[in-house]
């Protein structure tokens, strides 16, 4: 009898520990409690209308704006830098999430902070002074993330995770939008989620109706998405991605999923929870 009570107590303690770690498990499936957030990547927008396109995705339910800063050296493409972001900042209060695909990220910390960037994510492959750069970004009052290219082992970021706001797992080779989702990167997301239940894990590249379930189940909660959002019904697609994270990542029931911001309007006609069938018929990239 006494052993039974002790057994009950130890199970209870185990449950409390597990819940405290931010993970719940229902029917063998692991869920986490990090909130879903969708960040449209303006790389897929009409850049001549950067302000209008950014304000539009905000209205359609975006949680933040993802800005791909490329230097033509770290990646074989060129985009924009702090002056353009500073211009955009004047027109929006949205969280600006800058992904620095540059060879010398430390060089841009001051300019990005002055331009109004909220979150500064740099590549672990771009510097030998990761800890120093994390500290420098924080000192400027920005959130800080570390990104990993597809060939970089996830272990490289472990020493820094306790000091980071997010880890970005690239699910395409950085440099261009419109590429195919690399499902083999999900093992990295799963390992990060297992080790760091309270960490924000961002994925970027090839996210769409047909790939979001896998990313959400692996544990990603920040979803960067370019082509899929900008080439279709934005409100509907943003909402589909968000509901998938809530359902497959947070374990929410259909009735508790975030409704579409403009539900009922012509922009978001019939989103009623994400299911495999809904997702499969939701339009392609
Ligand atoms: O950083 C990158 C590419 O380097 C991404 O942000 C892409 O812009 C995502 O675009 P899609 O794959 O969603 O079109």
UniProtKB/TrEMBL annotation:
Transmembrane segments: none annotated. It catalyses: D-ribulose 5-phosphate = D-xylulose 5-phosphate. This is ribulose-phosphate 3-epimerase. Its cofactor is Zn(2+); Fe(2+); Mn(2+); Co(2+). Keywords: Isomerase, Metal-binding. Belongs to the ribulose-phosphate 3-epimerase family. Its EC number is 5.1.3.1. The lineage of its organism: Eukaryota, Sar, Stramenopiles, Ochrophyta, PX clade. SUPFAM superfamilies: Ribulose-phoshate binding barrel. InterPro entries: Aldolase_TIM (IPR013785), Ribul_P_3_epim (IPR026019), Ribul_P_3_epim-like (IPR000056), RibuloseP-bd_barrel (IPR011060). It is an enzyme of class 5 (isomerase). The gene is RPE. It comes from the Eukaryota. GO terms for molecular function: D-ribulose-phosphate 3-epimerase activity; metal ion binding. One of its GO terms (biological process) is carbohydrate metabolic process. Signal peptide: none annotated.
